[in-house]
Amino acid sequence: MSESTTAAVTADTARRGGGELPSALRIGWARAVVETKMFFREKDSAIFIFAFPIIMLIIFGTIFSGQFEGTGVTVSQVYVAGLLGAGVMTAFQSLAIGIAVDREDGTLKRLAGTPLPRSSYFIGKAAQVLLSSAIQAVLLLAIGFAFYDLPVPADAGRWMTFAWVALLGINGSALLGVAASSLPRSGRSAAAVVTMPFVVLQFISGVYIPISTLPEWLVRIASFFPLKWMCQGFRSVFLGDAGLSLEVAKSYELDRVALVLGAWVLGGLVLCLTTFRWKSRRDG
Amino acid sequence: MVPRRPYTDDDRSMTQTAVKVRGLAKRYGDVRAVGGIDLDIRQGEVFAILGPNGAGKSTTVEILEGYRTRDAGEVSVLGTDPGRPTRAWRARLGIVLQTANDAAELTVRETVRHFATYYPDPRDPDEVIARVGLEEKAGSRIRQLSGGQRRRVDVALGIIGRPELIFLDEPTTGFDPEARRRFWELIDSLAHDGTTILLTTHYLDEAEALADRVAVIARGRIAAEGEPATLGGRAAAKATVAWAEDGVRRTVKTDEPTRTVAELSRRFDGEIPELTVTRPTLEDIYLDLVQGATHE
């Protein structure tokens, strides 16, 4: 069939001139708005996501109220840094579960049938996790500064470190989350499939247990993943030189933090592009 | 429902094809889902695909929608190969999904407005909501809607982009009779606008009420195609004349029911008790076709 035989349309369906496709960025922004609305309207899960790290901080801060000998660093300060890392990495959890659910409930199928560019979908998801991670970080820091004697970093260099660790960390985590969303067989199983490895990762990456007290082989495993490096980066920001003796390498190794997190951003991108599925496994 | 203007030979849309399919085939492993289908759907036509579950209806439609790849055959939908979908092409289609369950926490108005942002020339969201009869529910979360209301949201999202071609996959499954009737009126009004509609259904009355033409798919092939009134030789089939005589129901199958009725009329000298003249229903024809295909 030639193009010309299908070109004409009747008056009612004719385009009213102009008719340019909206840009991916504009639609991405519209997605970001509805994703954020949906996120906050799922009240129980939104409250859980924000309350979880705070409750963990209070529990661990209460149980281990002392200082690390000879450092002047309190256990709670280490937890704030670690929970910040875990908070950033919830981008991984949110996306891995959220996209698996979108695949299950028909969201992805519906979107795939519209002129929505794929990138707009991801812009929307990214904006939503960026916002919720930012809120988590602000809450944790506010509580840390107010109740746990977390020193407020005075120099701009520390805040620069905070910014790039957070930015690389959230990007790497988000991309890894998108890739991991293809693993669960269904939206219903996603929470279980994703949460378990994430909790294990938190324990071996120095979120709940100081990294220097972990066996070397566990640290080596944790070193393959971004969480350990994010926590390390955040410790460098908030503990400073006083906490150096608590590090495995007696250094914050910021160059390696940048290297590993950067590699995860690139690797996560490749993983996303090669593994992402718009359909569930059953749909083939 | 208001009858639509019938097609005439000088109707320009007669020569314009919205969907053209030649030799379409698709296998899943060893199973042949679609085995050589040809279809021509004209611009502005309401076309129904009938068939039992597993006959290849959904596979065929999903290939046309650009959701699935095909193994063989030529397919053109609005002049584009759906195997290579573009955004501009997608903007001209409306797909009403069978089992979407998404966006539960958004309101009807938010959802329809949001989908409008995807298209170059969308309809007015409030008009679309009114058109599908959800004005009173516009501010409700989708989670709170009934099944039928939810399908109306699906239709709203399918037509918000001012599509030239709408796909409706079993749109009234699970509806009560009144909701179905209202839904038919909605589809009919879209057809009045000149939108081409491709509908799959297993309700024969639905196909008969809505479709200009019908194709019956059985075992991955087209078993018959035509207007609902003449499908499978329905118009030419023998009529059944039935009446009551001496307290017994009598029936005669005949090619000339008028003559039979005239003879009866003479015999009874006036009113014939409990007279009926029936042709095979679409359902009779359909079941014959489907069973014929199964026994081939």
TrEMBL record, chain A:
GO terms of biological process kind: response to antibiotic
InterPro entries, sorted: ABC2_TM, ABC2_TM_bact-type, ABC_2_transport, Nod_factor_ABC_transporter
Listed transmembrane segments: 46-66, 78-101, 122-147, 159-178, 190-211, 257-276
UniProt GO MF annotations: ABC-type transporter activity
Keyword Ligase: no
GO cellular component: ATP-binding cassette (ABC) transporter complex
Source superkingdom: Bacteria
PROSITE patterns (UniProt xref): ABC_TM2
Main localization (coarse): membrane
Alphabetic keyword roster: Antibiotic resistance, Cell membrane, Membrane, Transmembrane, Transmembrane helix, Transport
UniProt keyword S-adenosyl-L-methionine present: no
Membrane topology recorded in Swiss-Prot or TrEMBL: Multi-pass membrane protein
Domain ABC transmembrane type-2 stretches: 44-269
Location(s) in or outside the cell: Cell membrane; Membrane
Family: Belongs to the ABC-2 integral membrane protein family.
Protein name: Transport permease protein
Lineage of the species this protein comes from: Bacteria, Bacillati, Actinomycetota, Actinomycetes, Streptosporangiales
